[in-house]
Amino acid sequence: MSPVSNIKTLKIDGKDFSARQDETILEVARQNKIFIPTLCDLRGLSTVGACRMCLVEIKGTAKLLPACVTRVEEGMEVTTTSERLDRYRKSILELLFTERNHICSVCVSNAHCELQSLAQRLQITHVHFPYRYPKAQVDGSHPRFVIDQNRCILCTRCVRVCEEIEGAHTWDVMGRGIDANVITDLNQPWGSSETCTGCGKCVHVCPTGALFEKGRSVAEMLKRRNFLPYLTLMREERD
Amino acid sequence: MTPEELEQIAEEERGTQAQFLHRVNVCLAAGCISCQSQSVKDAFDKEIANRGWQRKCQSKGVGCMGLCAEGPLVSTAQGALYQHVTAADAGEILDALDSEPVSRLVCRTDVPFFQRQKKIVLENSGLVDPERIEEYVGSSGYGALMRVLTEMTPPEVVQEVVKSGLRGRGGAGYPTGLKWSTVAKAAGQHKYIICNADEGDPGAFMDRSVLESDPHRVLEGMLIAAFAVGASEGYIYVRAEYPLAIKRLRTAIRQAERLGLLGSSICGTRFSFHVDLRLGAGAFVCGEETALIASVEGKRGTPRPRPPYPAQQGLFGEPTLINNVETYANIAPIIRHGGEWYSQIGTEKSKGTKVFALAGRVLNTGLVEVPMGISLRDIVFEIGGGIPEGRCFKAVQTGGPSGGCLPAEFLDMPVDYESLAKAGSIMGSGGMIVMDETSCMVDVAKYFMDFCMTESCGKCVPCRVGTYQMNELLARITERTATPPDLAMLEELCDLLRNTSLCGLGQSAPNPVMSTLRYFADEYKAHVEEKRCPAGVCGNQAEEAS
Amino acid sequence: MSKLRLATVWLDGCSGCHMSFLDIDDALITLLERVDLVYSPLVDTKVFPEEVDITLVEGAVSSEEDLRKIRMVREHSKILVSLGDCAVTANVPSMRNPFGVTAVCERAYRENVKLDPGIPDQVVPKLLDRVRPIHEVVPVDVFVPGCPPSASVIQYVLMELIDGRRPELSTRTRFGA
Fold it and tell me: Is A237 exposed, middle or buried (0-12, 13-18, 19+ CB in 10 A)?
């Protein structure tokens, strides 16, 4: 018997791939240009498996598993696209559109929004679940940034980047279920936050127009995320 | 503490008990306390003192006797059980100790409610004083721990649990022995034991009752588990809404520590185990193991994807064994009598007994322990005494918000993990709500969906938004404004949540809807197509007709 | 071959989708070789015809009048097209939904009005509690998101429908496009 190898071979959509044992299905798929939709995932941040967009089928497993947190295994056979997965992904995305008030046409992130572009990619031309139209808050108390809860999809990227990369932990989640919200400090106005360093990382990792810079008009908010892998790499090297 | 010393305590306790000619046990568990059983106990104490019977008659506060609906309950050593006892009855009951019981207060025990039960978990409930460790020791308590520490190796303990066939009593029914052996084999210097006492299903009170009636049994189970898997620290995660259970657990922990049954170098061996309480702040999702672990760690109680399972990476990233109260409560008897003995009770795949909290439209509401494989009919009609007011049985709901509603055609089905799952429900933690024809099944489904929506943590999208959408659809159906496409959408969401939610809460949230859609489709149809509620529960129909 | 009958309807929207339709410029002439424009805000017909092959609907359903109209339009149209984000998602008109119709009317007709403030109860159609996308009210056959959908997308949709094909839109337009 050969010693246990730390290289695993697996099949994704019928094709053979090899991967390090600590890699996730999503990482392997991305390296090989296989598209798996994601929303909460962002390279450089911890994974939470919350948005459920990256669910994939694995042969021999009844449950669908999130590709972002599921590690490769020897002989694993992964299916990333199927009629069923497609249907579920569309439904989940549609649910997000119904949850708050996503008015693309007047959004700062129009044409640069991950929710919007994913909807297009998944061929969503309308939302068949009823819209909720909740009354959501807009906090413009910060001198440079705004949080518009109407556009938040609760991916918690802002929470994670603030805690894991900036180390400030200004953001967190408050409330449960449909009433959950991201908050700054103990739900105080962002502008009065004592912990916020004003670094703006949260703004740039936000997949939608929920977090944006003041002074940006419709479609003007472009997000820069290149800093994230560099920062992560530098932190890792220093440790 | 040595086995001999423990035996000495037991002997002394039995001796003390034997000195009394008479004994009056007053239930001091939450159910009876809420109907003033403490004043009954005080009345007995006072009356015994007045009569100068202190050496002759013992009055004792004990745990749950099961028939909670008829409380306060009082039992005597002569074998009489009294119901609806008030403080004023104390003298009369004492007068009757040497003669015939007081007939107007007698609760018959020769009825199926008592006769058909088989008590393992509840063997001490209603008999021992939960606030005195000596009484637990006196009824063979901590004997199993002693045996494990002096005569067995950890793998032997695991093997005994494997042999017993015990499955997790928290709901999912994962084989306990397998879980233990996984944690035992997991690499890690530090391992943890967690007892899940975050009982949150509406209408369920099994764990509360066990903790209030016999807390040492749970501690002993945890100690044995810790020894078996190699853990030295443990937590009991108990919901803050159970103040009495918390108080009695705290007392029990203090007492066990004082006797050297808990703490460092237990019984002079190298085995150490420390246990602490963590109080849940009222979130149903914290009953889910990964959310519970996050909560114990002081974080927001939200689940995370598994794998890694807690057995590999649990509390503070270390291998963690997490079992439910009732699971731990089964351990000491299994060690005492052997896994073989336990495996002979129940069915092929579901061994032992199960405690159920019987509630709803049934004559005898309360706590029962029955062998696995018993039929629903026996539980509802024999033990439960059937439906009151001459009404008709309609459904029994098991497994709480994660379970389903089963109609009359399943009454003869054996109660075991597989049968219940096959029928579209689950064993769950043991809540059992009986419904008669006055219940509207759509309304019931809506009640549970509203519960799941309120209790969803909000982390994953399908559960957070899906439970809201389903609740809205169910509201429209009960308001009779829904259309056939709404029904289709409801079914679509059932499928979505079941297959894509992150944790058990979201995955099982559709169960009450799916089971009622399956067995009571005509009721949905009546609401949607004929705009009427057959049970007359939803809205005021007379008002609408006018 | 007889010409298909085309109609366009304007509910609660800014008329931008109609402007975009007009932006197909000279292609209008080609289009009109294939269809008759039987009803539209752009032509002078007062009554919606009995039978229409393709109806483009711009705007969300905001008032009782919108509701009455879209139900009537649905009844007389073979293919109903939700044209633009207001029709497809309720878009900007729906931004009043979180506040409720009373608060919105108070703000519009009383708080911000100096001369003779008061909520009109005549002539102006009564607003619905909620602005809704068309498919929440009547079945819709084709969805064309966009704010507005570009002229080329509208032209493409019409030509596909005229030729009896189902337009494939996801690569051509999206919400907010």
Answer: exposed
